[in-house]
Amino acid sequence: MQTDTELWELAAPAFVHALPALMEIYAAAMDPPQDQLGGRKVIMEQHSRNPGFQSVTAVDASGGAVGFAYGFHGQRGQWWHDVVTQALRARDPSAERRWFRDSFEIAEVHVHPDHQGRGIGRRLLYRLTAARAERTAVLSTHSGPTVARGLYTSCGFVDVLTDFRFPGSPHQPFAIMAARLPLRERGAARSRGRSRVWRWTG
Question: Any idea where the N-acetyltransferase domain is (predicted)?
């Protein structure tokens, strides 16, 4: 579906300045407990200082933000990266090497509910990853047949870990997903005769 929104790339200082408006999008899209919003804002500010930070904001015709996405280069010493790779190391060390050796961590992708269903999330995802030099993109999303998971799957993401529980959230299962960069265009097919793992086997 066509949309008249523009995508703006915000450097880290501009992203932090825009966080009050972006947090409104996050709150509307995720509906978290109000007492968690302050902590989430602090985490986003900290993420903006990570190496390779990049953010994209969707802006409507009135100049208001309606969606955003950001990520950064994943590496040891980052909480999400260390928790996930530790779990993978115990279950499938080859998957850890394959997906996390040189990865771009997509930390957040959110579109305000009033603007969902217009392709904005997909545009944010492609714009965010289009020029990345990393080999892969990785992320976590709620388990189950959600709209977000369907979007990621259509872009080439596959499950690396399923029913994963982060420390502090034992009752909420997540899927850890990863894709080779650049992301697959919607509807693009793999070359005939090549398996799903051809890129890893040469």
Answer: 5-182
Closest CA to 92 of 173, 178, 169: 178
Residue count (the chain): 202
| Rounded CA separation 24/30 (Å) | 10
Distance CA 38, CA 186 (A): 36
Nearest of 86, 6, 10, 84 to residue 47 by alpha carbon: 10
What are 147-198's pLDDT values in tens digits? 999 999 999 999 999 999 999 888 899 999 999 999 988 755 543 333 333 2
**Pairing outcome for strands 103-111 and 136-142:** parallel
Helix (H) or strand (E) holding 53: none
112/54 Cα distance (integer angstroms): 20
CATH architecture designation of domain 6-187+197-201: 3-Layer(aba) Sandwich (3.40)
**Closest to 68 in 3D by CA, of 150, 128, 147:** 128
Backbone angles phi and psi of 54, in degrees to 5? -150, 140
Q: Buried b vs exposed e over 47-69: b needs ≥16 C-beta within 10 Å?
A: bbebeebbbbbbebeeeebbbbb
Q: Which residue has the higher pLDDT, 73 or 197?
A: 73
